[in-house]
Design brief:
The protein is mostly helical and 93 residues long. Helices cover 60% and strands 0% of the residues.
């Protein structure tokens, strides 16, 4: 039988609480919704991925990230810019 006891009782430091977790959830929901719309628009578009990236002023890697579902690599502003580039209904109204 061991008589050794655990003498180091340090608790891991908890990260500070988030100020408004709802904002992160809302942002993620908006980006997810836009990602789904954009992938459908890209699929039916006559434009190629390189042309879309060039017109939106984004690197080609961002389009690759979008099509691969790597949502964390794209900001809401980048997604909105892509939508304005691809969606003809948004630019005509």
């Amino acid at each position: 039988m061991s008589t050794a006891s655990h003498t180091c009782e340090t608790d891991p430091v908890d990260p500070p609480p988030r100020r408004c977790p709802d904002l992160d959830v809302r942002d993620l929901e908006q980006r997810t919704r836009l990602m789904r719309i954009l992938t459908r628009l890209i699929a039916v578009s006559d434009l190629g991925s390189r042309d879309i990236a060039r017109r939106a002023g984004l690197p080609m890697q961002k389009i690759s990230d979008l099509l691969a579902g790597r949502l964390e690599q794209l900001t809401l502003d980048e997604l909105r810019s892509l939508r304005r580039t691809i969606d003809p209904e948004l630019t005509s109204s």
